Amino acid sequence: MSRRILFGLAASVAMTCAQADTLSLKVLGQPAGSGLIQQQKEQPFFENFAKHSGLDATVQYLPVDVAGIPDTDALRVLQGGLFDIVSIRGSQASRDEPILLGFDLVGLNASFEEGKRHTDAFFDTVDQRLQSNFNTKLLGVWPAGPQVIFCKPEVTGLKDLAGLKIRVGDQSVANFVAGFGATGVPMPFGEVQQALARGVVECAITGPASANSGGWPEATTTVLPLALQLAINGYGINLKTWNSLSDEDKAKLQGAIDTLVADIWSYSEELYEDALRCNTGDAACQHGTLYKLKLQPVADADLAIVKEALTAKSLPVWAEQCNAVNPSCESDWNATVGAQLK
């Protein structure tokens, strides 16, 4: 065999080895229309993943709506290995694994500080459950921001929700609004603006920044800034992908995600205040589109109702649902999150 052929074979083998050493990841992200967290934090992070992580890696990043995959299928996508990393929308994915709702029951997280404390307490429990049941390691969780009520008819408080159809993110909120005679309607985020405009629903619940990005103020008149949840989302990685990494690479990947998650916690709080200004026409708006919604003051009585909802309704209803598929669910929650409430 000639030296030229030998050299060519050696070069080919070297190139193949180099390509094999490069980590290739497929990442399924938040919906492209969901707002600035996806646009300004998540997508840039994954598109520059090698820089942020220090890993020799390439990433194919697709928002879930661009990929044409229902956001309710996040855990199934991870379990099957269709994507290596998925930005899990907690409320939607809870339909497959109700333990996720334990991060963010109605009435649990009245502030970002409470949300951080409660998610930290419950994190390992959820991670173990996802590893054993969905072939998924939980890498981190973060809040989209306080979930408030946008309505087409003018409302002054919770009592005015009677008889209205309200877009909700999960069953916990559906149960809560049902207590006021309203009907909770699950609906993908991208369909909500038109549903409001056409009267399919009269109200809808999301964070102010997401509502601004989705154009909800064009089809509504009033925002009631009564925080029901923080909309806890997270990042999961397929266990086969995770276990294929060296300990050093695992540390680099986890460290990069930790930095992203911490950044989103801070950014989410910043966006919440600014988006309220944008949605209500305050010229101090910096990041969104100016609209002219009426900002309805929140009554102390409504604040008390949301707080009481945790023990009166959302926790017992969720516990029954979660215990049905995971007998230790409620006791695990009480030993972790519940211990933070005492």
UniProtKB/TrEMBL annotation:
<keyword id="KW-0813">Transport</keyword>
<comment type="similarity">
    <text>Belongs to the bacterial solute-binding protein 7 family.</text>
</comment>
<dbReference type="Pfam" id="PF03480">
    <property type="entry name" value="DctP"/>
</dbReference>
<keyword id="KW-0732">Signal</keyword>
<dbReference type="InterPro" id="IPR018389">
    <property type="entry name" value="DctP_fam"/>
</dbReference>
<dbReference type="InterPro" id="IPR038404">
    <property type="entry name" value="TRAP_DctP_sf"/>
</dbReference>
<feature type="signal peptide">
    <location>
        <begin position="1"/>
        <end position="20"/>
    </location>
</feature>
<protein>
    <submittedName>
        <fullName>TRAP transporter substrate-binding protein</fullName>
    </submittedName>
</protein>
